[in-house]
Design goal:
Layout (H helix, E strand, L loop, with lengths): L3 E2 L11 E6 L2 E3 L3 E2 L3 E7 L1 E7 L2 E5 L3 E6 L5 E7 L7 E7 L6 H4 L5 H9 L4 E3 L1 H16 L2 H17 L4 E3 L11 H17 L6 H7 L4 H12 L3 H19 L4 H7 L5 H12 L3 H11 L6
Parallel strand pairs: 1-4
Antiparallel strand pairs: 2-10, 3-9, 5-8, 5-10, 6-7, 6-9, 8-11, 11-12
Helix pairs in contact: 2-4, 3-4, 6-7, 8-11
Length: 293
């Protein structure tokens, strides 16, 4: 993939940046940067694409650690009746932890962590539970304390290998150009805005200057998957969110995510999630203690 190269605003008083984003609807353009990104989101639902993989954001709290120059984008918003979306975003250069520091034998777990973040990591389990309040403490702390809190967060992620999973595929390699930046971001934004409608591939291809056939070849070359595969992942991701909100029945969810035929919706959902939509909803209800009797 070829994302935009984003410049992270620096602060002369600090060696890395921490910001808090608050808002009902958030869209991030397809981009990358030389800094490592540590991100935690709570209170929202959405879709995340990192490298060549797209996932729906289901959890009440979601955390990722993204390596330098790994392209990513996400679209998320608040669930009705729940708290507004809050995100803590940390950017730091890997050189913040010098070669001399990482060469110490005690730093081997951190060395391994930095080698793993090349493809991005989802942070889950008890590690996520412990780090959620810690990330908000990081934002509230003064510059001196922030460094040690960040180091402690990375220490816990490094030690808890069972609670981190890679995101992008091992064969993912990016080659970036300004023209592809604009094209892919336009494709992604259009998809996030129109996934719940019938998308005409010819119309979309024309918007980015391709014939239908050339568009299909281009998207597969850049992302490692077909556009139909990507669109399906986005639609099923949003279907999962609607199923958890319990406001619509399964057939209504099917139509709300852009499917015209329930059979296609069921087939795609089972292929991606391994269960039927109703089984997915019931599993979520049990997890949340909301199972109906």
């Amino acid at each position: 993939m070829k994302p935009a190269l984003r410049s992270i605003t620096s602060n002369p008083q600090a060696s890395f940046t921490v910001r808090k984003d608050v808002g009902a609807n958030v869209y991030s353009m397809w981009h990358h940067h030389p800094e490592v990104e540590l991100l935690i989101i709570r209170g929202g639902r959405g879709v995340q694409t990192i490298g060549d993989r797209t996932d729906n954001l289901n959890e009440s709290c979601h955390m990722t650690l993204i390596g330098p120059y790994l392209p990513h984008t996400m679209s998320y918003d608040s669930r009705p009746g729940e708290q507004i979306v809050e995100a803590i975003v940390v950017h730091f250069k890997q050189a913040l932890f010098t070669h001399e520091l990482l060469s110490l034998p005690e730093m081997q777990p951190l060395q391994k962590l930095f080698s793993d973040i090349v493809y991005g990591l989802n942070i889950t389990g008890s590690t996520l539970s412990e780090l959620e309040p810690r990330m908000f403490q990081l934002y509230a702390a003064d510059y001196f304390d922030r460094f040690f809190i960040l180091l402690d967060i990375l220490r816990l992620i490094a030690r808890r290998r069972q609670d981190r999973t890679p995101i992008a595929g091992k064969g993912f390699i990016g080659h970036f150009s300004p023209q592809d930046n604009k094209r892919l971001d336009k494709i992604y934004q259009y998809t996030f805005e129109h996934y719940n409608k019938s998308i005409n591939l010819t119309d979309l291809a024309e918007q980015v200057g391709f014939s239908s056939a050339a568009f299909c070849r281009y998207f597969k070359q850049q992302t490692g998957k077909t556009y139909v595969q990507f669109l399906t992942e986005v639609r099923i991701g949003h279907a999962c969110r609607l199923l958890m909100e319990q406001e619509l029945d399964v057939i209504q969810v099917c139509y709300a995510c852009g499917y015209r035929h329930a059979s296609n919706f069921y087939r795609h959902f089972i292929h991606i999630k391994g269960v039927t939509p109703l089984q997915y909803r019931r599993a979520y209800q049990r997890m949340e203690g909301k199972d109906e009797h």
